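Re: [ENG-882] Designed sequences occasionally contain unexpected residues at chain ends

Forwarding the minimal case from QA. Structure tokens:
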């Protein structure tokens, strides 16, 4: 498994936010780990791609609020709110 550390700057409603992102390659897919070591966040779309789940939003809609958070994230169309899964989801 290859691990890449990528600092990333995003702008959200005029605020400059610096993120430290860890990218892990697993089965040919890049899994971006956001948050901190103690509280990792995984982009729900990445997890869905890894597990072969086409409609990850429907899959996670019934998860407890502690298992998912919505945060700003970069997409191909610009900065948008995205679902992230907490590390607790994987326990």
């Amino acid at each position: 498994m290859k691990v890449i550390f990528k600092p990333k700057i995003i702008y959200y409603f005029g605020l400059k936010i610096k993120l430290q992102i860890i990218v892990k390659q697993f089965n040919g897919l890049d899994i971006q780990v956001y948050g901190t070591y103690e509280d990792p966040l995984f982009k729900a779309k990445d997890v869905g791609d890894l597990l072969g789940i086409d409609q990850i939003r429907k899959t996670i809609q019934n998860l407890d609020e502690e298992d998912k958070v919505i945060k700003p994230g970069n997409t191909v169309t610009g900065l948008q709110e995205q679902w992230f899964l907490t590390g607790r989801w994987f326990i």
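QA comment: On inspection the terminal residues look reasonable. Strands lie at 3-12, 15-26, 29-35, 40-43, 68-75, 78-86. Proposing we downgrade this to a documentation issue.
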